[in-house]
Amino acid sequence: MNTRTHRLEPTDDGQERDTMEISEKYLCKQFLKIALGFLCFNSALCFGQTDPDAKTEKIGPPSQEKFIEVDAVAAPWRSSGCLVVVPKSREPDCYLVTEPLFKQANIVNIYNEDGSLWYSLDLEIDYSLPMIKAKNKDFIPLATSWPRALLRMVAESDHWYKVEVNDKTQAIKYAMKDAQEWSKTPWRRWIYESGPLFLREQKILDKPDGSPIETNETMQIDKVNILQVEGDWVQVREFAKNDGFTGWVRWRNGRKILVGCKLSGSSSYQDVKYVDEDR
Question: Which of 256, 195, 192, 257 is nearest to 229 (CA)?
Fold first, then answer.
């Protein structure tokens, strides 16, 4: 037969208390601490993230704000900080993203015009277009290569970015500013970060809108290094040749991405046609 022994101890006020009761209360508190820690480890609470709908209540919905047109790219905040690998893509006002902050900012939200949540993207899980479309067939970003999702940004207000969530239908939704979720980035950044560009049929010109440079008539240069980006044009050099042919190519024309790069989601010039016509 199991028995439990109770022992009475005096307290500061001269009363007696049951040590068994104290022990049970202590164990209960310890259990709650462990359980809370486990929940925190497996949820956004650890990272200081709050209910997406609660965020919109503080600033008001996009429908109540005035927007001005912009031509930029919305990128995940955690992947838009200062870079060392590609110095030319570093903006003067860039910010530092530490490893803990990077891990914490894995959830990015997209909202409807009334401020309600439209879609929540987990950058650690939803890392390819098929995986994203399996959850939301209407969400087709501009690109889904690293950093997982890039969106065309067409306007911004005091608290919101207006973005295209479907690069085919040009459907509009909204991303919140100052929430460590999305950042406004220039197009040139993602050209610089693409590394080598892949050309399909473009000729390398002596200057923007200039004449083709003189090369061997049978020579087709289809892979080039990036020297500098100016608007819709990029100065390039023949890949892996310091003394190779140098000139300019147009990387976009309106909405159309003309080269194989991070923005087109293509890894070689053969993929460009697929991206342009079928996405």
Answer: 192
Q: With contact defined as beta carbons under 8 Å apart, do 253 and 184 qualify?
A: no
**What are the tens digits of pLDDT across the range 215-256?**
655 566 788 989 999 999 999 998 877 677 889 999 999 999
Are 163 and 152 in contact by the 8 Å Cβ rule? The answer is yes
Q: Look up the pTM and report it.
A: 0.71
Partnered with residue 223 across adjacent β-strands are 198
- Helix (H), strand (E) at residue 72: strand 68-76
CA-CA distance, 173 to 163, in Å (whole number)?
A: 6
Q: Which CATH architecture is the domain 194-278 placed in?
A: Roll (2.30)
Q: Indicate the domain borders of the chain.
A: 52-186, 194-278
Query: In whole angstroms, what is the distance from residue 273 CA to residue 220 CA?
Result: 17
pLDDT in tens, 114-127: 999 999 988 887 66
DSSP E strands in 77-178: the ranges are 107-111, 117-122, 151-156, 160-164, 172-176
Nearest to 118 by CA among 62, 158, 188: 62
Residue 105 · residue 180 · CB < 8 Å: yes
User: For residues 198 and 123, what is the distance between their CA atoms, to the nearest angstrom?
Assistant: 27
User: Closest Cα partner for 27 from 15, 17, 19, 16?
Assistant: 19
Question: What are the C-alpha distances in Å from 92 to residues 24, 98, 230?
Answer: 59, 18, 17
